[in-house]
Specification:
By secondary structure, the chain is an alpha+beta fold. It has 2 domains: 29 residues, no CATH class; 85 residues, 2-Layer Sandwich (NE0471 N-terminal domain-like), CATH 3.30.2020.10. It is 21% helix and 30% strand. The strands form 3 sheets. Strands 1-2-3 form a 3-stranded antiparallel β-sheet, with no helix packed on it. Strands 4-5-6 form a 3-stranded antiparallel β-sheet. A 3-stranded antiparallel β-sheet has the order 7-8-9, with no helix packed on it. It is globular, with a radius of gyration of 22 Å. The N terminus is likely disordered.
Amino acid sequence: MAGRISRRPWNSIWTNRFTGAHYEETQITPTAINIVTAEQVGDFYIRLGFDDGTEQTVDFKPFLTHALHPDIRAWLDPTRFATFRIEYGELVWGDYDLCFPVIDLYRNRIEHSASLEAVA
């Protein structure tokens, strides 16, 4: 079994059976970012508060106006747009009819990609 690496289940050390070298296991723990507050501050602007204290005011109008799909463009109705809610740390409309990756909202980067639109 030359060169084979085995993991000992009782600790975080990797051992190379061929060389006998030990390597510390690198832990990568993804941090979950959740939306905790959402307040509409304009027709299509929503101020979002995240659980790490970060706040972003996101303008959804460019995304909605550039959408080609009529089901997405339907959210340009201000009354319908105002029906958003926070569910499980995410901002959603309807039965997840419209939602965005939390990381995109956190970075305030909700953009249309022409290549993605072509695929859809």
